[in-house]
Amino acid sequence: MTRSTLTALMCAGILGAGVLVSAPATAAPAGTAPTAGTELSGKTVFLDPGHQGTAHSENLQRQVDDGRGGTKDCQTTGMTTLDGVPEHTINWKVSELVRSSLESLGATVKTSRADDTGWGGCVDDRARAASESGADVAVSIHADSTSATTDADKHGFHLIVPTLPIPSAAADAAQSERGRSASTLMRDSYVRAGFEPANYAGVENGIQERSDVAGPALTTVPLVFVEMGNGSNPDDAALLESSDGQLEHAIAISTGIIDYLLGAETPSTTADTATTPAATTTATIAAPAPTAPSDAGPATEGRSALSRLLESVSPYVNSFGVDGLEGLATPDNVSSVSTFAQGLLKQILADR
Fold first, then answer.
1. N or C: which end of the chain has fewer CB within 10 A?
2. Tens digits of residue pLDDT in 206-244
3. Residue 12: CATH number of its domain
4. From the DSSP assignment, how many helices (H) and strands (E) are in the chain?
5. Is residue 126 a contact partner of residue 260, using CB atoms and an 8 Å limit?
6. CB atoms < 10 A from the CB of 167, how many?
7. 3-state helix, strand, coil in the chain (%, to 5)
8. Pairing mode, if any, of strands 137-144 and 223-230?
9. How many Cα atoms within 13 Å fall on the side-chain side of residue 213?
10. Burial class of 325 by CB neighbour count within 10 A (0 to 12, 13 to 18, 19+)
11. Is residue 223 part of a domain?
12. 8 neighbors 327 (Cβ within 8 angstroms)
């Protein structure tokens, strides 16, 4: 991770100073702000960074339950980007950023695999682990590929949702309402962050319905299945491969999760009017808000104050690059870094 990425994360906290502490948590009495770092206390999230490392001897072609009365391969190796970066590593790095951000806000985070070197489990194993975790929501993080060579025409993110009904009554109940809601909120988060919905494979407004993906058909907690981009597309691949791009994806995913866990909130008057060092500093840099495609407009409801904090960072990263944020972090305002940013900083430093 670069120094500029560290600066961007410090800016995330600076931009949100005074906002995080005003976001109400479920357990807090009405009108009472929770202590910073406890906003997601009592919430559990299961993260599944897709695929696995290469240090294993498992048979990927072994047949396992597909959740619809048939079987499919236990696992796949995942795609490789144009510059040779394996998908399993991209998924792992983004997942670790998301994990750190959620844990810094008090959430309990469970994961399908412990590292990016060894085995991570068959698709049915991961679905079982997610179901047994009792998570409020599970998120499977992936990246797509349309060609072994450059494909400049097909690009964009999408969310995979299962064709309904699902044979398992428990899985059908989890994915038909709560799973659909969580997936839609994740789609909206990606659009607001400036990502374009995929223009291929029958994706409509960032959503792709499929009956051949086992995970959603086997999981009995709400599941969000994210395909962050197309590793065969040069622009998508550049974001997937870079530390800065992985940060942008992590912010979008964290925002979508928080929106689902906390729902709509009204920012407090104190948070809106408080004067902080960041308020003066950031006023001189006007980053345009991402414009959502007309056919995939993000929902205005179901957004939390915490998610609005995360979204405030993305336009700056998107418009100026993280190097353009360097001037926002000064010796005078670094002390304002929020608990959220501290959690991400901890992960960035651990990856250096």
1. C
2. 999 999 999 999 999 999 999 999 999 999 999 999 988
3. 3.40.630.40
4. 12, 8
5. no
6. 10
7. 45, 15, 45
8. parallel
9. 22
10. buried
11. yes
12. no
| Count of domains for the chain | 1
Q: Of 343, 158, 122, whose CA–CA distance to 254 is shortest?
A: 343
Which range (21-25, 126-130, 156-160, 210-214) has the least confidence?
21-25
**Residue 265 annotated in active site:** no
Residue 279 lies in a domain: no
Higher local confidence (pLDDT), 263 or 316:
263
**Active-site annotation holder among 39, 87, 96, 227:** 227
pTM for this prediction: 0.76
321 domain residue, yes or no: no
Residue 280 CA: distances (Å) to CA of 16, 273, 284, 317, 337: 13, 12, 8, 19, 15
Nearest partner of 160 among 134, 137, 186, 178, judged by Cα: 186
53 is a domain residue: yes
233 backbone φψ class: left, alpha, beta (φ>0; ψ -120 to 50):
beta
Mean pLDDT of 316-340: 47
| pLDDT-based confidence at residue 311 (cuts at 50, 70, 90) | low
Q: What are phi and psi of 181, to 5 degrees?
A: -65, -45
What is the rounded end-to-end Cα distance, in angstroms, of the chain? 6
Question: What is the domain extent for residue 41?
Answer: 3-262
